[in-house]
UniProtKB/TrEMBL annotation:
<keyword id="KW-0575">Peroxidase</keyword>
<keyword id="KW-0560">Oxidoreductase</keyword>
<dbReference type="InterPro" id="IPR011008">
    <property type="entry name" value="Dimeric_a/b-barrel"/>
</dbReference>
<dbReference type="GO" id="GO:0046872">
    <property type="term" value="F:metal ion binding"/>
</dbReference>
<feature type="domain" description="DyP dimeric alpha+beta barrel">
    <location>
        <begin position="215"/>
        <end position="364"/>
    </location>
</feature>
<dbReference type="GO" id="GO:0005829">
    <property type="term" value="C:cytosol"/>
</dbReference>
<keyword id="KW-0349">Heme</keyword>
<dbReference type="InterPro" id="IPR006314">
    <property type="entry name" value="Dyp_peroxidase"/>
</dbReference>
<comment type="similarity">
    <text>Belongs to the DyP-type peroxidase family.</text>
</comment>
<dbReference type="GO" id="GO:0004601">
    <property type="term" value="F:peroxidase activity"/>
</dbReference>
<dbReference type="InterPro" id="IPR035992">
    <property type="entry name" value="Ricin_B-like_lectins"/>
</dbReference>
<dbReference type="Pfam" id="PF21105">
    <property type="entry name" value="DyP_N"/>
</dbReference>
<keyword id="KW-0479">Metal-binding</keyword>
<protein>
    <submittedName>
        <fullName>Dyp-type peroxidase</fullName>
    </submittedName>
</protein>
<dbReference type="InterPro" id="IPR049509">
    <property type="entry name" value="DyP_N"/>
</dbReference>
<dbReference type="GO" id="GO:0020037">
    <property type="term" value="F:heme binding"/>
</dbReference>
<keyword id="KW-0408">Iron</keyword>
Amino acid sequence: MPYQNKPSVKGNYRIKVFGDAGLFVESTPGNNAGLKLAALVPSNNKQKWTITPAATGNNLYTITSVEDNSGLTYFKNYWGYGYPLPAPGQSKMWSIEEQSATFSKIKAVELGYVFDSCSGSNAVRLYSPSGSNCQNQYFVFELLTNGTEGVHPDFPNIPLRSTLPLPLAPTSDSQAVPTGTLPNIANVQGDVFLRFPKASHRTPRRGLVDLSTHQVFQEFIFFRIQNTDHFRTQLGSYKPTTSEDVSKLLTNISASKATDSDDADINELLTQIAFSKLGLVALGETKATGDPRFDKGSMVLDHAALGDGQLSNWDVLFSNQDVHGVIMVCAKTSEKCQIGRERYIRDFGASMIVKSTVSGNARPPPYKGKEHFGFQDGLSQPALRGLSYVNKGQLQVDPGVIIMGYKGDPVFDNRDAPQRPPWTKDGSMMVFRKLEQDVPAFDKYLQKWGPQWRSFTPVPDEVKPPLTDKEGAEFFGARMMGRWKSGTPISLAPFRDDSQIAQDHRRRNNFDFSVPGVSGLSDRYCPFTAHIRKTAPRNLDPYIDRKFLESALIIRAGIPYGPELTDAPEDPQRGLLFVCYQSSIDQGFFLQTTGFACNDYFPATGLTPRNHGQDPILGSGKSAINGTANIKSDGPVVLRVTNDTLETYEVMGIAKKVDTSLETFTPEFFVTSRGGEYFFVPSVSTLKILAGGGSERPAL
């Protein structure tokens, strides 16, 4: 790979000492953080640096470690020198000054000292710039291939975000898709596939930044249309945040991470509007959308199928079937979010009745990005071909799986079937669910079963050293989720967490549940019932086609609600405001919930059904009816049973011997649905049609 005298574009680089010594600048994180010189190790991320030109130019750059996203700063010594070192937070500004056409010096702008390779030592220090013949201070740069290294060239400072738009310049990871077959992102509302940024992308530094400000807040304004004509008028003035707007905002966020600026993180109000079936009818759009689950009328009709138990568990807001739509408002501060909420309530005025507002907020540091059970959330999102950047191992879908009117949309793909109305194009189906989490009970459950960790792995002898009770509880929770609380997949770290994997965007989704040396499907390390294996299954060949699994993927864009856990006897409720997007509710959310998560026999792992159990996070607890019968041995059985009304049913299956000497493990569930609704998220152009009185144009 040829070397450059200075970085040519933002990207990943190795920094090499000029000359023939073959020494590269390497990060040494930890208590004795610093930089050292070492021989090349191509796979060593400590020798790789994300170098980003400052917006002001003038040869100024930020330098960030690829290994752990630490910014490059320095320590000044009073004796006339200092040390560059990686540290959590933002990089200092560095000036990379050309000394010739072949090398440069790297200067700490505020200090005036430059990198010095200290002849006779492997350390990198900062010294005053020497004359023109001091090769200890000369460095060259090797640009690494963006597609190989996996860092988005346009968003180098937010590499862990799971949904990013394609680079402006194509890379080897780009999907070649004809532009005419792709949605116009300026016409797609902003939360649908890029998602509103709902967690601070900055790493706050104590003493410099108020930690309390590093949250994002969201309001859901659920309304009923009261005066249709007045509502249409106000809708005509409403300007939603588009996916194009979110793309620009992410650019600002990435740029702000390179500086000490805080305001550029999220300094604007984000908003989106969606309508229930009743809401569309109220606005004059009575035609079916082509989504039977939505067109049926309301989620309340599915509460039993979704495993929600008694309807009395639901909030009245959703059980009354009286919601016409929802306006979402998202902002960096609670105050700004409330101002936005009041603004839209005021703008729409008497045209609508606000049925309720539901508030969510990203958890504060040190729980950034985590849901209330403590697990990192939102790590695995599908990339839309032709629209989204693809990280290594990330699942991919055709755009129509999420956005209506394109390849992957089951209605669009079936040209022999009646097509959707044209106003559905560039829209998406949104599912909202209020999921209450019993955090204290969940924690006690892990603590109860943690000491029995040997019972929950088929290979306890591989666990060395043996787990403590505390580690056993963490292990038990990781097997329930399929990831450790850091976000590291249990497939890649089977017995103890390795948080560095979670911080590596090239590794944290690069798995398929296979086990080296084991043929076929295996639950050796990750249970078949694990949440991520139930809801986003991978590699079920040959029993389930990969294209079918791909078609069931969804974009998840939820946010936690409720305060942090306290010891107060009247502790308030908390949970997740679940939001997801898909072009077909039946194919997406409903299939994931009823066909995958709550289906004891999913995933299919053989030619005969096997009862794995339900998703321990989303499962309903409503499982098969238990009973006893006399049989002679293992193998196929056919039983006839009667129900309460004396109707006869035939049950066929495989009998399996049970070891009754073991303590019976009964799964418990800690998530309670408080209801929700199905919504249609119109395109920007369709909002104008609705504001103008609806459309009766012919189908596509």
